Amino acid sequence: MALSPSALNAQALFSDNFDVNDTANWNVNSGGGASVNTANIFFDYSSVGIPSAPHSTGGTTWGVKLNANNTVAGQALGGVSISPTGQSFTGDYQLRFDMWANFIGPGPAGGSGSTQITGGGIGTSGTTANYAGSANGIWFAGTGDGNSSADFRAYTPAAQGSQPANSGVYVAGSVNNSATFYTALFPAHTAPAAQITLYPSQTGSTLAGALGWSWHDITITKVGNAVTWNIDGTLIASLDISTNGVLGGNNILLVQSDINTTASTDANGTALNFGLFDNVVVTQIPEPATGALAVLGASGWLLARRHRRQA
User: Fold this and answer.
1) CA 133 → CA 71, 101, 156, 157, 259, distances in Å?
2) Tens of pLDDT along 247-282?
3) Average pLDDT for 33-44
4) Which segments of 70-179 are extended strands (E)?
5) Cα dihedral 297, 300, 280, 232 sign
6) 3-state DSSP assignment of residue 271
7) May I ask the CATH architecture of the domain 11-310?
8) How far apart are CA 179 and CA 110, in angstroms?
9) Domain map of the chain by residue range?
10) Please, what is the Cα angle at 257 between 272 and 223, to 5 degrees?
């Protein structure tokens, strides 16, 4: 558990709501063999029927759209990560953003190539691609359609593949959306009515426990060597920087990655398989007062106990 930066009177270090074209202020890093990955950093997501993000002001609908492995020619895992140009965050801080994982329907099975992961993280150089199988920083991601054996994932420089379910990283002790922990948090969702109008194949619903077709409030918090991943205010995973390899740098990242070596063959694959991000904020967490330290200490002790029981 991490205390909210707002509760600790935190200072904003960086923010971008993407309501103006900030393409020049972000590095786009693409990787994965022959895969073609794209980033649109000034994308009007209402054009694909998605409503304004929860933290947007005035109902604006501009954000970042990331596409992974757009081409059938891809013969390796492909993905794209973006980082703000020239940024470096040290000390204790929190990355927060609105996230939407879109996938080609119909739900719950999804169309061709629908299973990808969407997420973000910290500790990257900002100039190296992070995607499934290649981690320059610490990052977390989940599938939109829930059709993977590992729907919730944590990547580190020490383990280029995702951390396994029995690693002690995940609060649920599971990485599959079907676990009761996830189904209780994330009910099934249908695609927005406006998207179904534009793309009639977007029928059905997500699997319970999956992240797709809905906005989520993501926080990734670093306090000392502890990094935690919260979705909609609930702790999903935590790990220790000191035991997970050497970080590539001090920048943040947003990521979309395929987790398969083939791409969608659907004509609407590129239009509908994507990760969407809005309202990115990095806030500094000041050194807590004595009372806050006690809360953090108790929270860490309880979390450590839970992880030991699950290991």
Assistant:
1) 19, 20, 10, 10, 9
2) 999 999 999 999 987 778 888 888 999 999 999 999
3) 89
4) 79-84, 93-102, 116-124, 138-143, 152-155
5) negative
6) helix
7) Sandwich (2.60)
8) 20
9) 11-310
10) 120
